[in-house]
Amino acid sequence: MKITYNFTSLVAIGNFNPAIVSVDFLKRVCKLDFGEFVGESPKGFPVVKSINYSKVEVYVDLNRFSLRSPNFDEKTLIELTGAFEVYYEKLPYTPIQAVGINVNCNLSFEDTTEQAKIKSMVTEPQTYRDFLHSNQVIVIENFLSMPTEEEWIKSSYRINKEDDLSRSIECQRKDNIITLNYNWEAGDLSSSESARAKLLKMLSDSSELHAEFRGFIKHVEGDSK
User: Could you tell me the pTM of the whole model?
Assistant: First the structure.
């Protein structure tokens, strides 16, 4: 099986002021280096700001702040979580409700046998219960229903844990490719001290998140080591 990474992103949901975020603010105040400046959204739209660099895209609107990289590795996770920590330190009174990290990739296959094997794993709820050591998983499935058969299109799986980050995993078929999005989320940040502790854990454990995702891929491939 071949993995092609589409992006890694950190997304925060809350109340933001896009007018504050600028190339100068990120460089001079936050002292962040996202590589070569590529471009930004047109001026005159105060409710949306997008700034593109060679390594990261920064996007802010009134309810969403995101950092997005085309790469996935431990270094990328450290850069994204570290950049968000710096941003939040400079604007500590920004109301934030939830923060999530996403890894999005395409799974392609050598032949139909391998494709069928991986499909059977990613569409089976037990796969997620076993890997994440949970007794419960919320499942949403989409099928194309025809008179003689059903064709799988997409599945979403969510596991909530009181003492840990939530996980949401979505798999979608696109021709002979399966697109996988793996998400960690710390929610209810405005009302819960324990949730804020989860956020701090997520931001400081980039190596563990990277290892978890790599472990999930091995699990799907049938490698339990």
Answer: 0.93
